[in-house]
Amino acid sequence: MIGAEQRQTEAGAQIRVAIVDDHPVLRDGLASLLDGDPDMAVVATGGTASDAARLLASPDIDVPVLDVRLGQASGFESLGDAVRDVPRPPVAVL
Fold first, then answer.
1. How many angstroms separate the CA atoms of 84 and 28, rounded?
2. In sequence order, which residues have a C-beta less than 8 Å from that of residue 89 and are 6 or more positions away?
3. Cβ atoms within 10 Å, residue 30
4. How do residues 47-81 score in pLDDT, each as one tens digit?
């Protein structure tokens, strides 16, 4: 995945989170905060609507966290497209 960081986790041991935000400070800060929780692992990050679409289609993510505004695009648009294609877990939208 372009712009995504991945780490291996034991299946079911942690909640696998993906963060998509076009502001690196917010994205990296949130990733650092969530990684501090032993029950969570940030397995991917991205900064664009295309990153969001790719990550929402991934079966390796339990909870995606999306920014409402991704540059000129919207996290809601990416979410809407993904919901039509496959069932998704709960999504947090910033």
1. 29
2. 61, 62, 63, 64
3. 20
4. 988 888 888 888 888 898 988 877 766 655 666 55
